[in-house]
Amino acid sequence: MSVPVLETRDLAVEFAGPEGPVRVVDKVSFTLDPGEVLGLVGESGSGKSVTLLAVMGLLPPTARIVSGEVRFLGQRIDTADETALQRLRGGDMAMIFQDPMTSLNPVLRIGTQIAEAIALHRPGLGRRAIAARVVELLGMVGVPDPEARSRQFPHEFSGGMRQRAMIAMAIANEPKLLIADEPTTALDVTIQAQVMEVLEEVRARTGSSMVLVTHDLGLVAETAQRIAVMYAGRIAELAPTEAIFERPAHPYTIGLLASLPSLDATGEMLASIPGQPPDMRQRPPGCAFHPRCHLGRDRTRCAGERPVLAALGDGRLAACHYAREAEAGAATAIPSGVGVAG
Amino acid sequence: MSGGELLRLEGLEKHFILSRGLGWSRRRLRAVDNVSFAIPAGQTLGLVGESGCGKSTLGRVLVGLIAPTGGRILLDGQPVSPARSQTERRHIQMVFQDPYASLDPRMTIHEVVAEPLRINGGYTPERVDALLAQVGIAAEAGRRLPAQFSGGQRQRIAIARALALDPRILILDEAVSALDVSIQAQIVNLLRELQRRIGLTYLFISHDLSVVRHISQQVAVMYLGRIVEIGPCAQALDSPAHPYTQALLSAAPDPRRRGRRRIVLAGDLPNPLDPPSGCVFRTRCFKATERCAREVPALAPLPDGRQVACHYAEAVDRTRLAELLVPLTRASQDAGIPITKETHKEDPK
Ligand SMILES: Nc1ncnc2c1ncn2[C@@H]1O[C@H](COP(=O)(O)OP(=O)(O)OP(=O)(O)O)[C@@H](O)[C@H]1O
Ligand SMILES: Nc1ncnc2c1ncn2[C@@H]1O[C@H](COP(=O)(O)OP(=O)(O)OP(=O)(O)O)[C@@H](O)[C@H]1O
Ligand code: SF4
Ligand SMILES: [Mg+2]
Ligand SMILES: [Mg+2]
């Protein structure tokens, strides 16, 4: 096996809180192979963004990595100094965020910003070559008339166009790792389809690996080879995309899939997971999902002992004491059956 | 309770007049343009379309927050007066997308729900408790502030408040869009249960076609202020006939249809201040011809009864939408053009 592009092992992150530290990422382990897309899904607040910020060394000052490690192409980067990280970011490791305005400078021309990103990592390149590369990149992501467009400012671009410009900037130095946090959430579906298409084309050309964070199960289903489902700061299940949808083994994944409305199933009540996701300051003991779980609600083991992310074969991993039982029951739980809540 | 028509819109329009800078030039933005439809009592009409197409504006006109610039609204066959009577106002209520912004953070939950009753009369603590119970919130929770509730619970509270005055119609403007799927399912189920129990009628605004399919009998698809397709879900969503409906259905990611090919529309949404001539969709349409630039297509019925505004309307089964791409791909391959780029709109064969 080749060295993974990215690997986290038992990564844990805490925020400082008035009543002591709050652990929002709790022993997260995953690997990303060369050329692979790993989808990271989970409800709002489940720790997806914080996991990625920790990977990139961009945690806010109130947060810190309390244990575990992060490796990029085999090298530890959680302990690397800021200079080394800066060289990585925008070079071999690039990011795409939900809101392009957070990464685009409103007072600089689009072309200038992309040129800066290139110059920073390739100091030897002349101005002419950089300018040509900027136009090439904008053309690559489907910005029409890239030459003229490169002289415009971000506000002169539509939302979808800005997202393309940000992708152009992210791929400027042919990164080995793309980290995309909800890259199309703010866009309409038809524009989202355009942007995802562009991203896939570009990835096919550069061979970059990608971690794609989204709460849209449909989007990861179509893009990722493997999917990690997060719940309350932990990975509940990690498996090849087909397996997540065909043979889910964690009760939370099963509940999520069951609650998903479909264009085909109509007229019935949707299945739904009862209750609310937990507050990270009061994460339930044992399995964090047990109060809402149709299997674990009344089982003492689920309330007392934290399940580890364990292998089920075929590259499937689930953190559930009763994964086999869950898997066997999944067929009847989807599309209906998982505790219909009022 | 269901059957009779409860709400009817006739040629409803809302145009915003925008003055540009200090000059005299004024421009007309047709946010809602000649919209007509009817919703039977106890049923749901889903309203879908991309950002800025006029969904919220239509909702705001219906609920009386802004005045229409043309057309009529009829409730139970009676025209709603421009200056709404108190009864007319209480009959149509609205629930918004953002459960964080729509509740006053300083009021307890009990007060939030009590407010419309205090203003219109009929407040009793028991009535408020019953309203909260109806949406699955315990009466004791009424003492707490909105900040202490999660997004899904706040949306329940917003629904309880909207129900306080016994409305007949709820306009739900992206009411479940901000919620996580498992919570969204809880709220969708609650809405359906309420509809069954008290015969409510809904206008359900959303950009999620699957959710719309679950809750609506009919669906209206809007583009740049106009309805481009409207009819029963079983027609418009299962065998869409307008190219825009076809593209929306094809573009929406669906984990149950992985690996399929999809129609990727060219270009951006047009500027609403400077809409294309003829058919407003033509600049992004994969079927457009010269005729589309000249003639505005009228919203006209197909043999099955649903209405479509397209010169080349043709119902295509949802599972076979990708086949629409085949001739298109061939044409663009012949011309050496990659299909997903801005190019294929220039030359529809
Ligand atoms: N700056 C911060 N200070 C304190 N807590 C934070 C901060 N940022 C995030 N958190 C907490 O960390 C947890 C994980 O947040 P994170 O942003 O990673 O969630 P997410 O999965 O990305 O959610 P979403 O889908 O809403 O983006 C949440 O409980 C959140 O409240
Ligand atoms: N008060 C106003 N003055 C001028 N233009 C307005 C006003 N309100 C809305 N518009 C314009 O009317 C059009 C329709 O807006 P509307 O908010 O109804 O869209 P929408 O379909 O609800 O979009 P979204 O999905 O983003 O909520 C947009 O072009 C918008 O900019
Ligand atoms: S460990 Fe127990 S509570 Fe947790 S998901 Fe599995 S069965 Fe449910
Ligand atoms: Mg996030
Ligand atoms: Mg709106």
Characterization of the model:
- The complex is a heterodimer of chains A (342) and B (349).
- In chain A, helix 3 (110-121) packs across helix 4 and helix 4 (127-140) crosses helix 6.
- Residues 336-342 of chain A have low confidence and may be disordered.
- Chain A has an eight-stranded mixed beta sheet with strand order 6-7-8-3-9-10-12-11, with helices on both faces. Chain A has a four-stranded antiparallel beta sheet with strand order 2-1-4-5, covered by helices on one side.
- Chain A has helices spanning 48-56, 82-88, 110-121, 127-140, 146-149, 159-171, 189-206, 217-223, 241-246, 251-259, 300-304, 323-333; strands at residues 6-15, 22-32, 37-42, 63-72, 75-76, 93-96, 177-181, 209-213, 226-231, 234-240, 310-313, 316-318.
- Chain A has twelve helices and twelve strands.
- Chain A folds into two domains: 6-224, Rossmann fold (3-Layer(aba) Sandwich), CATH 3.40.50; 248-263 and 270-333, no CATH class.
- By secondary structure, chain B is of the alpha/beta class.
- Helices cover 30% and strands 21% of the residues of chain B.
- Chain B has eleven helices and twelve strands.
- In chain B, the strands form two sheets. In chain B, strands 6-7-8-3-9-10-12-11 form an eight-stranded mixed beta sheet, sandwiched between helices.
- In chain B, helix 3 packs parallel to helix 5.
- Chain B is globular, with a radius of gyration of 22 Å.
- The relative contact order of chain B is 0.12.
- The structure holds adenosine-5'-triphosphate (2 copies), iron/sulfur cluster and magnesium ion (2 copies).
- The site of iron/sulfur cluster has 14 residues of chain A, from loops.
